[in-house]
Amino acid sequence: MNTEYSIETKCIQSGWQPKNGEARVLPIYQSTTYKYETSDEMGKLFDLEKEGYFYTRLQNPTNDTVAQKICDLEGGVAAMLTSSGQAANYYAVFNICEVGDHVVLSSTVYGGTFNLLAVTMKKMGIECTIVDPDSDEETLNQAFRENTKCMVAESIANPALVVLDFKKFAKVAHAHGVPLIVDNTFATPINCRPFEYGADIVTHSTTKYMDGHAMCVGGAIVDSGNFDWTQYGDKFHGLTTPDESYHGITYTDKFGKMAYITKATVQLMRDLGSIPSPMNSFLLNIGLETLHLRVPRHCENALRVAQWLESNEKVAWVNYPGLQSNKYYELAQKYMPNGTCGVISFGLKGGRDVSVSFMDHLKLAAIVTHVADARTCVLHPASHTHRQMNDEQLMEAGVQPDLIRFSVGIENVNDIIADIEQALTHI
Question: In 3D, which of 64, 76, 107, 28 has the Cα closest to residue 226?
């Protein structure tokens, strides 16, 4: 693929490159396994001595083609798909962490990610220190330990809509010799490419804007290829020392800049198996083809809705980085000048019960456990996605009890505003 193509062209053309006489549209390789003529050929695949496919739990041509498209969109060197965004974040961290290691985590990340790292992975012997993303460098530095292996944040926090100061986080992470892992789900590579600002690994819940139609759960991990794992001796020994489960190969020696994704594929996916189905990847690819068209419309509509809410007397507060009144407006202009995302958070005068009542009266916007697709939808995080958190944790995550997460779709914006207006008449 021509790397000089614009991102709009990459949405269409990256990934599947049919040869003479091959299908124009990406085929669905709906097969668990692949045939070879000799035992020796198969053996070389298992020894990582030869590239190819032998079992879809590790790799599948449809999945790999779509992963390559996402890799091109983010400007990375290698990528892999997973069965969900949660799996992507888990693999991204677990690929370089083990018992006794430590992670620094932004407090405002999605509730599921927070629980994964702060609760579940703690049971696996991986500790986590939570930091406020607005902290200064000195405060962030204090969170690191000798056994810290990575720093994790979101480009735009879900649902707090905190815009990450990439350069600050990257500077701190690299000063301690660890990679910065950024979940870029909300911004998408259309509005933000974290590698350009110092991030090392990017993850996505492809379930959201990339799929765009609420059809398929999925995730992705992209490696920038910029972090030098070998520079820190055995600190990242899973990558830089022999893997006895593959006859002693060392990933960084054998695969160079492909080491991180190769290990995640042939070791983690081999053992944990969170692979997407080829059919889901096929549908994801269709969504990616219109990503560059949909994201600007989401942002345009969201700004209009946010401005309308800001002027309504029944609304207590509005949080959207595209508003000039927003505390993250300048950071958004710095890192995402073309727009942020289609998600708004706001609260109504009267508090939590009023917010819930308002949601129950919406007609066009649906109450669903989802966000960031073509249809306008709404959710109350304190009652739904973040309900596992106590009140203190909710506030640390930027989730007020009355917070309404409103995901603006690509319908006519006047219809969306009219729906909000009629629902407000009931409170």
Answer: 76
pLDDT per position as a tens digit, 32-54:
999 999 999 888 888 888 888 98
Q: How far is CA 270 from its chain centroid?
A: 22
Dist CA 296 CA 288 (whole Å): 14
Amino acid at 33: T
pLDDT for res 386? 67
Q: What are phi and psi of 32, to 5 degrees?
A: -80, -25
Q: Which ranges of the chain have pLDDT less than 70? A: 1-2, 384-386, 397-398
List 183's β-bridge partners, or say none: 154, 203
Q: Is-contact 78 71, C-beta < 8 A?
A: yes
Per the CB < 8 A criterion, the answer to whether 201 and 152 are in contact is: no
248-278 tens-digit pLDDT: 999 999 999 999 999 999 999 999 999 999 9
Instruction: Beginning with the edge strand found earlier in the chain, give each strand of the sheet holding 102-106 in spatial order.
Output: 78-82, 219-223, 201-205, 180-183, 148-154, 102-106, 127-131
Task: Classify 319 as helix, strand or coil.
Answer: strand
Residue type, 62: T
3-state DSSP: the chain helix, strand, coil percent, rounded to 5? 40, 15, 45
What is the token pair recorded at 74? Answer: 């983010």
Q: Which position has the token pair 């810290």?
A: 148
φ, ψ of residue 294 in degrees (nearest 5)? -75, -45
Is the CB of residue 80 less than 8 Å from the CB of residue 220? yes
Among 317, 322, 320, 310, residue whose Cα is nearest residue 351? 317
Give the H or E element holding residue 9: helix 7-13
pLDDT of 1 reads 64
d(Cα 192, Cα 56) in Å, to the nearest integer? Answer: 31
Q: From the centroid of its chain, how far is CA 111?
A: 13
pTM: 0.95
d(CA 156, CA 92): 18
Tokens matching residue 162: 């905190």
